[in-house]
Predict the 3D structure of the following.
Amino acid sequence: MEARMDLMANEIGAKIGKRFFNVSLAIQQSPLPRTVQDLVMLRASQINGCGWCVDVHTKEAAGAGETAVRLNLVAAWRESTVFTEAERAALALAEEGTRLADAHPGVSDGTWARVREHYDEDQIAALVYLIAMINAANRLGVIVRNRGGSYEPAMFADLAN
């Protein structure tokens, strides 16, 4: 199955894509730990079935030093012992913020309270934006049928210029 469209090969798509990337870059440069960012992006991408995004975030996290054990257990984080309480709070928020269309009641007060125990206001702001942005990216990838497997780390680094 081929991709339906290369958004970056389209003038409007590339213009919007560059701005989308710059928002993501601002999140990446925030005080939210990069490890947490990687785990959250991977988990949301798994839930949304975006093969391209799972490929990207797995390879980027591995390149940043994330272990294969932790990457393999993200999908079953509740049933594993390798994540910190702070990471578990972020993963719970990511899941609840991602499953809004699944008749989920939204983000629970309990999850929000756990997030507030582990992160400051700036980190929470970055985390909320991260969850929104990865969900948008997942939808883009699924709509145009971007397939996983061909991503090379840092292949979009020139978008930051």
